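User: Round two. Same drill as before: sequence, then structure, for each protein.

Assistant: Same drill it is. First protein:
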Amino acid sequence: ENVGTFVPANDIDNEDLDAVWLGGRLRGEKTFENSGLSFLDYRLDIIGLIGEEDVLQTGVAAGAFRPVTQSRSRDVMAYAIDAGVNARFGGERSPLFTINYAFGSGDENPNDDRDEGFKQSGLHGNSSRLGLSSTGVRNYGEVLRPELSNLHILSAGLGMPVWDASDVSLFYHYYRLDEDVTDLRVDGLSTPLNGQDKFVGQGADLVLNTELLEALAINSSVIDDARLRFNLGAFKAGDAFGAGEDEYSFRTFSELMLRF
């Protein structure tokens, strides 16, 4: 849009990205005999983003429209990394240890002609079966739910079977900005950042999964599978939240999945 034209007042998307995401994955696993370490798998994802972005600034809405006061185009060149290792010491029912690191580049200078901040495509879910969990969990934390953009995320987890039909997992997440900003691309919290500090905070998630039919020894001719999932997440804000530092946020939910 050109300066002086109008856009709908309820259109809050001031960015138009025309870009290509290109990436690759390295993955492998290995089992060991006669060793304390019995199982190891690893994964490395690297993705690059290249394209062009049009950014608008608009004035106060007049009725159903807002005037465009500034319009500029920027080249986009950014990248992201997501890597993880799972390790087990002992037999199949031994705990599984997980370590993950994810990074999405930030934009060092928002006022120049190149945007170096990585953005996900908008089709991402950021959920997978981490560690030993038999159902999908939020890769980067249940409470914050960040997009992998301008952010370092270090995660560690421990998962273990509980009886024959259940598993429990505990995950820890550490968040730090790549570049100082006043906002963060997240789905979980809307509190602004102070633009001066980089420590975003810490999170922890507890995940419990149970296969109900097996756990309760029920034979059903109607229900083929019944799974119960319980998630509890906590987040403690870091100094990047300014006056909100050390504040806690929680999120919990349970889900019953039936397959007939």
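Second protein:
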Amino acid sequence: MDIRRWAVTANRTIGLVGFMASPDWVGKLKRYYGIVDRKITKFVTDKYIQEAPQVKKTAEECVALVRSRISNYGLDCMWNTDQSGFDYEMRPGRTLHLAGAKHVLAICQSENSMTHSYTVMMTIFPGTRKFLPQLWITLQEDKGVVGPIVARTMFKVDNLYVTASASGKMTEKLYLEWCEKILFSHVEDRCILLADSWRTYSDQEAVLEFKPEELEYEMITIPPKVTDDIQPLDRLFFRMYKDSFRKISSFIIVHSLPLQVHHRDVILKMHSLVYQQLQSLRFGDLVNQAWHLCGYTDESFDYVNPTEFSLNSVGLVIVTMKTATTGFCLSAAGAKLLSASITSTIKTSSETVAAILATARKVGSLKKIAREVTAMGYPASYGTVRRILRKDKDTTKGVQKKPKEIPPQNTRPQHIKSIEKKVFKDIDKPNPPSQRQMAKKYKQAQQRLNRGPNFLKYLKGEKWKFILTIDDFWVYPTYVNGQRKVYYKFRGRENCKEWKKNCQRKHPKGIMCCAGISFRGPTKMFIIPSGAKINADLYIQNVLKPLIEKEIPRLYGKEAHKVVLHQDNAPVHQARKTQEYLRQSKVKFIPKEH
């Protein structure tokens, strides 16, 4: 219609006799210039066109302001947050039908879920960390709150923070809760928040009431009508996130899995799974590219599409979650990204196994096999290669694997359970007793009750990544001080095969060692000399001194001053001489009282 109208209008100036702008002429014109029909995504007025230069100018000013903050303070202090609505049941708007059909019906699991939605609030930043540890989700509940029964039985996981509202959308109260529980509890030193012009964001006075005193906080508001262009989450990231979520939901529907995709627990499990996947280092450049496309950074990145990598058509498999009774779909490549804390044991994909076995015919070294297979696009560690080759060798020889013996699980003592029941009964009263009274009544030390909250202060935010826990342990070899046969061969002489040589030096049956573990990895193992007297001097010289001078700088580098040492209450660890040495070495440590 538009092309015919334009053509007729232009012909009034040109004056071609008999030109009618027929449909055949319009079709030839469209084919010649590659013009096709496209769905109109937005209707605008003339005012919108007239304001376009001013809108563009405000966008450029916002980008310039953000770039100046990045140049002054670096990328590690910049954050971008935004909300996105999700339908409870995500279905495509089109389907196949016979030509000429006037009414097209499609089956859904719940009509109500097609018209109701919930909100996901995500935060990303271009620095070392890409995401906040928790994803904020606001569900739609009738009374605006999650009922007590639902709250008790609802699926819970560490990387989700679930709230509710009557509309399923964020409110000012929920926004302040997000600032207190999610944002301010996971940022340090300086926070520059980049957000759109949502009306609730403008009430920054209420936000400052929850801000820690030591945190320097600033909010930069993106001007209206330009969020699609200069907001990193809208520009690239939310589209990738929704594609991954939609593909999992579609797989459940297409394969008729016994799951209700609109069910509260199923939605939370899928969000937890997708959010956990996207936190992989493999997708870090996706966040960086989103900031680059908005003009905030100069460097461009070749990112990996999460949907194509983790949920491609190579072959979907079902990965069972520990906390779920049913499964979720991921490809073999995507299964490798899931953490052992979220998923159960994941078998190595058939493509990786085939690549390892094929490479093993040409290369003998396990390390070289792992290196070449990884270069082919099938990540495999040294342990994986060794396990696959050993299993292939046993299968060839017909060796059957013995069933794994499950050790008995440790359970809490019975007297602890009985005390818990009594305590719950006492506090379920209008005027419950104090902690001190209950500790005295049930003979539980008040000091022990206070240690928990004190110790949690060292785990707040990102502080737990700098805790180094050390402890001593014993290693007992299974066979020492035995006899061994020694064979000597002389030219022209026979050797005595019964000749045995006794062990000249007696070795201890037990070896005392000390080692530490942290977020950055384990430390070197320190061996305590056999027969030495265990005291503070020995502990300082053989463990603390090499730990402080070599191992902590090796693990943390320039951030070694942030490390906090965690030890148990052994006499050597809590000795006055040991603690004095730590203070002189300017090493932070958790005191006995905490």
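The longest helix spans residues 46-73.

User: Perfect.
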